[in-house]
């Protein structure tokens, strides 16, 4: 498991603004004071691991929203790629295009073998504070289940 050197539990999550698959601009700060955010960085649209993760989040989406959290995915794929990916798998949450990798850098998401963009999930509370960080390229189920556990704790 790669060590994430970016924001840790207790740190304020770096704000950003990126385009979603609908072309809408999304800012992390738009959620401050309103809802928690499950922010997940993933390597690439329409690859087996990323599809499994996105579909697992889709299947749990109602549980996340019922607990007061919004799910947001980020990769360096284009808006067009995100549009096709979200449509193909009926993903109900925003996929943001970080084409230059600036947000991935701000969160210091590690690369696997120095080339494959890492897979890291953050749970950020309503006040913009990181409450959970999980980094694993392969253990996709733990990304979703761990985030769900934390979101439910924050809601209670």
TrEMBL record:
EC number: 1.11.1.24
Enzyme class name: oxidoreductase
Residues the record marks as active site: 50
Predominant place of localization: other
Matches recorded under SUPFAM superfamilies: Thioredoxin-like (SSF52833)
GO CC terms, sorted: cytoplasm; thylakoid
Function text: Thiol-specific peroxidase that catalyzes the reduction of hydrogen peroxide and organic hydroperoxides to water and alcohols, respectively. Plays a role in cell protection against oxidative stress by detoxifying peroxides and as sensor of hydrogen peroxide-mediated signaling events.
UniProt subunit comment: Monomer.
Protein name per its UniProtKB record: thioredoxin-dependent peroxiredoxin
Species, as recorded: Catellatospora bangladeshensis
């Amino acid at each position: 498991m790669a060590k994430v050197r970016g924001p840790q539990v207790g740190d304020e999550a770096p704000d950003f603004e990126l385009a979603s698959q609908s072309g809408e601009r999304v800012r992390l700060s738009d959620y401050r004071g309103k809802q928690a955010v499950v922010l997940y960085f993933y390597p690439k649209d329409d690859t087996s691991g990323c599809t499994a993760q996105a579909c697992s989040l889709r299947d749990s989406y109602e549980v996340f929203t019922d607990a007061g959290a919004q799910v947001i995915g980020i990769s360096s794929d284009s808006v067009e790629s995100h549009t096709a990916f979200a449509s193909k798998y009926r993903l109900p949450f925003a996929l943001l295009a970080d084409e230059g990798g600036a947000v991935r850098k701000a969160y210091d998401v590690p690369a696997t073998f120095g080339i494959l963009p890492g897979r890291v999930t953050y749970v950020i509370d309503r006040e913009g504070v990181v409450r959970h960080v999980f980094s694993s390229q392969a253990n996709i189920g733990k990304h979703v289940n761990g985030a769900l556990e934390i979101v439910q704790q924050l809601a209670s």
